[in-house]
């Protein structure tokens, strides 16, 4: 009886974790485009004449910001998979 209750609790918990994973994927894939710029870049590229350069700097900053998030996501997924396999055994 007790093992049946525990297994039901595990099933409910896995459904919640699936929802969290799906929400995280949608959050990162469908985020709002933002303009990221440090104070020094803004001062150097300020004004209407440098709009293309400013946009290029913004795109570069966002590109560089994606890589650490992807690394953390991959490492988190690997840890999750290792724990899941460990619980099966």
Task: Write a structural description.
The protein has helices spanning 2-29, 39-44, 51-88. The chain is mostly helical. It folds into 2 domains: 1-31; 34-89, no CATH class. The chain starts with a helix and ends with a helix.
Strand content: under 5%
Largest sheet report: none
Order of helices and strands: HHH
Q: Radius of gyration, rounded?
A: 21 Å
What's the total helix number? 3
Helix content: over 70%
Number of DSSP strands? 0
Stretches where pLDDT is under 50 for at least 5 consecutive residues are: none
Distance between the termini: 22 Å
Overall, the morphology is elongated
Number of domains: 2
Given the helix and strand composition, which structural class is it?
mainly alpha
Overall pLDDT, averaged?
Answer: 77
Short description:
The protein is mainly α and 89 residues long. The protein has three helices and no strands. It folds into two domains: 1-31; 34-89, no CATH class.
